[in-house]
Amino acid sequence: MILLVFRAIIQDILLQVKNMVKLIHTLADHGDDVNCCAFSSSLLATCSLDKTIRLYSLSDFTELPHSPLKFHTYAVHCCCFSPSGHVLASCSTDGTTVLWNTQNGETLAVMEQPTGSPVRVCQFSPDSTCLVSGAADGTVVLWNAQSYKLYRCGSVKDGSLVACAFSPNGNLFVTGSSCGDLTVWDDKMRCLHSEKAHDLGITCCDFSSQPVTDGEHGLQFFRLASCGQDCQIKIWVVSFTHVLGFEFKYKSTLSGHCAPVLACAFSHNGQMLVSGSVDKSVIIYDTNTESILHTLTQHTRYVTSCAFAPSTPLLATGSMDKTVNIWQFDLETPCQARSMEDQVKFTEDWSEEDVSVWLCAQGLSDLVGIFKMNNIDGRELLNLTKESLADDLKIDGYSYEKEAMENWISKKKRTSPMTNLVLPSVVLTPNRTLKMAISRWLETHQK
Description:
Radius of gyration: 25 Å
Number of helices: 8
């Protein structure tokens, strides 16, 4: 009985080396729910139902002398830095979007939503020239971030605006509503597209800063993630050129959470996507494989916000438990990381005989004949999936309790309990990947 998915062994080792994450600090200064957290290259900003915005230095996570920032008369829903980090925007139920000087905490401008409606989200454009604010009545305003004057105004047909994200090149932005619609606008506030994305309402959206290249035509697209009350994260592919026009495509759905997803954010290198949920967990995904790298469960109430730092390997997660957790991603050591990467590059060049030697070293000599029969070399080994193991190599791919399988085989049964296919072998092989995952879970939950 073959239980090991071989590619998972290599991926699991790589993920341990490349993406180790640990909790390094907890901020507990807010007196109420944390609604949002945001990074600049040197600062972390957090905002809360307690009407304040707090600023922290990334060097030691101490609060700045001019923090907390106080102006808003009701809950602060969102905060974001300008790309330079010199200006911070915050928006509130009081119907205002305020710009702050991050160096001294002074108020630069107070911009009132034309309708006076509570402002739920704000976002700077990549070049800092514009700021978008979205309100509970569905109005969206594009402000000139230099003159602080209203540039354009629009609205969505239904629901509150609760999410907003600019494309990395700044030529469009996306808003999300409590009715579940994603709406795409160009930089002149013309509506390019609107689509029902989440049945029960959108909560957050974010663009990856790293483009995706279409192999067939060489065109560049951007990934957009959206999340909502339906407990799902959806991945979209968006492009907009003056030659080919606008294109918006659904790509996939991530279903790691068991409750509404309240926040999502891409890492600045585009390699990871993080989400926070009503289930109190934070999930970190590999954006290329869409597999779960980590599930963090330290918050005791809903996770409302998550953000990656732009220039350091840090993640911040905010919660209704009134805290912000700071996480750090670490390599074991630079030489270990290089060694592992070199090993995988070397694996791609393995011959069929090299693969056979590796199988024997892993205690899987029973598979040598099967792999040779299917001409599995190093490149094929790295590309194996559960489906190819089951369909092409006739390897079962499921995991069972050892005692149960021994009892099954002792009754002279020679078929898979799950697939009913004939087993090519009755040798039981330990699922080391599953064992490592269980061990890590126990270490996390038995402290």
